[in-house]
Specification:
heterodimer, A: 321 residues, alpha/beta, seven-stranded parallel sheet, B: alpha/beta, Rossmann fold, 6 helices, binds flavin-adenine dinucleotide, binds adenosine monophosphate
């Protein structure tokens, strides 16, 4: 059986939530998998993460190199190629780093690649059967992945339960990065600007998506929010179109919100959007497509055209006051 | 600057209800509205803006069937100078590496300083850009949301990372970048623009033109193979409010009040 590895994403000396999720992901492929964690970085932060992760993984490969201080995917890729065995099955999160690193790594390792995996249905010889979604989550597929020459697999964050047992008592093994020269140089991280309204503190959010169709129609959303005493947030296409500020965007590349009530209007429910909603709020989805994935995640659903429904709802709320 | 942009024709998911066909081998493709992949459209706009600034040309390329020509023409109406269609029955069933291998062969037929892809397409794989770069042995950056030209050898690119933060990098050309939505505001393409390019010749290349053997592309070479499409049973899902609009509104207001959703 192939050797399993998990690439640990970390920041400021703390492992990402995916670190513990990848253990259960690997176990879903092979219940007896002994997974080796790989942490790359530099200095005290790296030592801290290696120690933290060793509680959960039997073995941790620590690759310490000044050039790895910031996880530049082109540099990390070289360090991994220099260390991984030929038939390695490497798991990592499908986040902005995994998307940067994983596809090219699979080419350099000449191994199979499958991304954004939502579930595994076990192994048959050297084949893994995975489940993933297509068309913005509207349909799922089974994909057969031939891992006879190893595999690189990115796993959707948040779908596997974290393994909290922390009973591995693992050992940390130092590995040499080798030659990590790259034609891409990391410069700095520019932190997102803070907006006029801090939606991360809002208790009630009226959130609008592409279903609003036109900038002028946003008026009905603002009116509803005002009637409810809510703040307005949105999905990414609204920000891309520059109809609302980036500081109103909910999701993995926007803000993480934890309201009590979340009203999703004309939002399909992509995992990148839903990934920004925490704290288990009461979610109401209004969408004209009965098959919209958001209806699988919301508490209450209403199949309606928001352009017609929202003004009537606003009126009724104002009347009831 | 010579720029190549990889584009794909995809069903428009905000326009369509995607359904699985009766035997689960495909989605129902009749009556689907197709368009250019959203991310690719941003990539083409970015390429045109760079060309307008520093000169050069923009070529759009797709791996697809005859119908994919329409997205090439659409992007040419936007301002791309050339289109290339890569089409062959042998390409069918290609996985991400197969598509990247076909694109690589097309890249090597030209001389490009910059190759752009979208961050992801309809199957959400987000794989082709990174694979293409690795196959070409060129540097790569994904999820790019800003490009600044430093000189004729280097770019400064911003990558969108978690929380809307931006990771700045310096990257050597030639390179491959995958473009994130929101990097620019893609221009509108009218019917007139599309008519203008309706008769422009679009060269088509097949496997043999590209020197691609059956062991490199298509289903035979694929290590990742889609077995079926299905709609998962995901528990109960939302409680759907039924009735007339008035009834739904009344019920919703009652629920919102109970949950503290109306202040
Ligand atoms: C790396 C990465 C990061 C990302 N980060 C984020 C993020 O932080 N936040 C985010 O939101 N997205 C993010 N995305 C984008 C995400 O994948 C989706 O594309 C996006 O969330 C879709 O937004 P939407 O639901 O508004 O639009 P769509 O998916 O187009 O859905 C529109 C919905 O509106 C419905 N609708 C249309 N008209 C009406 C009407 N009149 N009445 C009622 N319903 C209607 C449709 O049925 C559809 O369900 C990210 C993508 C990538 C690749
Ligand atoms: N058939 C194709 N033809 C041309 N480019 C493609 C094709 N498939 C994917 N791409 C490019 O690769 C990007 C990422 O797609 P994917 O890896 O399929 O999610 C797309 O945005 C396109 O730029």
């Amino acid at each position: 059986m192939a050797q399993f590895f998990a690439y640990i994403v970390h920041k400021n000396g703390v492992a990402d939530d995916s670190a513990l999720e990848l253990i259960n992901a690997a176990k879903k492929i092979d219940p007896s998998a002994a997974v080796t964690a790989i942490v790359t970085g530099s200095g005290g932060d790296l030592d801290k993460v290696a120690g933290e992760v060793a509680a959960s993984y039997p073995e941790v490969w620590k690759i310490d190199n000044a050039d790895l201080a910031y996880p530049n995917a082109e540099v990390v890729r070289k360090a991994l190629i220099n260390n991984l065995p030929a038939d390695a099955v490497l798991l990592m999160p499908h986040d902005t780093f995994g998307m940067d690193l994983a596809p090219g790594l699979s080419i350099k390792l000449d191994s199979a690649f499958v991304s954004d995996v939502a579930d595994f249905e076990g192994v048959d010889g050297t084949d893994i059967k995975v489940i993933r979604q297509e068309f913005s989550g509207q349909v799922s597929t089974h994909v057969n992945c031939d891992m006879s020459n190893g595999a690189v697999i990115t796993v959707r964050p948040g779908v596997f339960q974290p393994d909290e047992s922390k009973s591995a008592g693992g050992k940390v093994v130092d590995k040499d990065a080798g030659d990590v020269s790259a034609k891409r140089k990391y410069l700095e991280v520019v932190v997102a600007e803070v907006g006029d309204v801090d939606i991360t503190k809002s208790e009630i959010l009226v959130s609008v998506g592409r279903g609003i169709e036109d900038q002028d129609n946003l008026e009905i959303i603002h009116e509803l929010a005002e009637a409810m005493g809510a703040d307005v947030s949105c999905s990414r296409p609204i920000v891309d179109a520059k109809w609302l500020e980036k500081s109103r965007q909910v999701g993995t590349s926007g803000l993480t919100v934890k309201p009590k009530v979340y009203l999703a209007l004309g939002i399909s429910g992509s995992f990148q959007h839903m990934g920004g909603i925490k704290g288990n709020p009461f979610i109401v989805a209004i969408n004209k497509n009965p098959k919209a994935p958001i209806f699988q995640m919301a508490d209450v659903g209403i199949e309606e055209d928001i352009l017609e429904f929202v003004p009537e709802l606003t009126e009724a709320i104002n009347e009831a006051k | 600057m010579e720029i190549l942009v990889c584009v794909k024709r995809v069903p428009d998911t905000s326009e369509n209800e995607i359904e699985v066909n009766s035997d689960g081998t495909d989605i129902e493709r009749d009556d689907l509205v197709y368009s250019v992949n959203e991310w690719d459209n941003y990539a083409v706009e970015e390429a045109i803006q760079i060309k307008d600034k520093v000169g050069g040309s923009v070529t759009v390329v797709t791996v697809g069937d005859q119908e994919s020509e329409e997205v090439l023409r659409r992007e040419m109406a936007m301002g791309a100078d050339n289109g290339i269609l890569l089409e062959d029955d042998a390409f069918e069933g290609s996985d991400g590496k197969g598509i990247a291998t076909i694109l690589k062969a097309a890249v090597e037929k030209g001389k490009y300083d910059l190759i752009l892809t979208g961050a992801q397409a309809d199957d959400g794989a987000a794989q082709v850009g990174g694979m293409l770069a690795a196959l070409l042995d060129l540097p790569y950056a994904s999820l790019v949301n800003s490009i600044e030209i430093i000189d004729d050898k280097k770019l400064k690119v911003g990558r969108e990372i978690e929380g809307g933060n931006q990771e700045m990098n310096e990257i050597e050309m030639p390179c491959v970048l995958s473009i994130q939505t929101g990097i620019n505001e893609p221009r509108y393409v009218g019917i007139r623009g599309i008519r203008k390019v309706a008769s422009v010749e679009i060269p088509t290349h097949g496997a043999s033109d590209l020197g691609l053997g059956a062991d490199m592309v298509g289903a035979g070479a694929a290590k990742a193979k889609r077995l079926d499409y299905f709609v998962p049973e995901l528990g109960e899902g939302a409680e759907m409010l039924e009735g007339t609009t008035e009834e739904k509104i009344a019920k919703l207001i009652e629920l919102l009040k109970a949950k503290g959703g109306i202040k």
